[in-house]
Amino acid sequence: EVSTEDPETAFCTLANREDLNPEESSIYHCLYQFTRNEKLTETNKLLCDVCTQRHYGPKNNIKSENKYVYTNAKKQMLISLAPPILTLHLKRFQQAGFNLRKVNRHIKFPEVIDLAPFCIAKCKNVAEGNTKVLYSLYGVVEHSGTMRSGHYTAYAKMRSLNNHLSDLVLRGQIPQALETELVKGQWFHISDTHVQAVSASKVLSSQAYLLFYERLL
């Protein structure tokens, strides 16, 4: 999909990214790096249909690929529609020559995360004037071991029944009371058939592989 946007606002976000100052080895830093502004130059230049037609005329007059005009451009990956359920998959492998090795580095992640610095200014399902897009953590998948062998375990939060989430999924309605309802709850660690109650600090210190959040605001 190609859209024409004002260059001054095309890369604007709901909240100022520069105020974020994310800590290294944190999920905020990962998101900041993934959504950073990139310059497309030299061999990465963008094929520009407008420039081509301006230079060579209508498309049907172009018979050679050499006549296409490429131009410098900027690229940025941002969220245009905030999902009801946010799943973050952390890359836990690294190429080392011809081999893959597991990345065991701990990535800090919060119980409540704000996606506003990573959403476009005109995010489709965020009310005008809102500068926060909050999500509450409810599940974590952790992997222990190596690339060749290991074990998956999970952390899940048991909380009161959330009848509002279906309203959010089906109708886009977000009651204000939702925030306090979803943050409360008891965490459990699940490993095969063994289930044990754990503290939130235990969950936040885990070596996350998958993170599951649900939207608050």
Automatic annotation (TrEMBL):
Transmembrane segments: none
InterPro entries assigned: Papain-like_cys_pep_sf, Peptidase_C19, Peptidase_C19_UCH, USP, USP_CS
Gene3D superfamilies referenced in this protein's UniProt entry, alphabetically: Cysteine proteinases
Coiled-coil zones: none
Residue ranges constituting the USP domain according to the UniProt record: 1-216
GO BP: any one term: protein deubiquitination
GO CC annotations on file: cytosol; nucleus
UniProt entry keywords in alphabetical sequence: Hydrolase
One MF term in the entry's GO annotations: cysteine-type deubiquitinase activity
PROSITE patterns reported in the protein's UniProt record: USP_2, USP_3
Name of the protein described by the UniProt record: UBP16 hydrolase
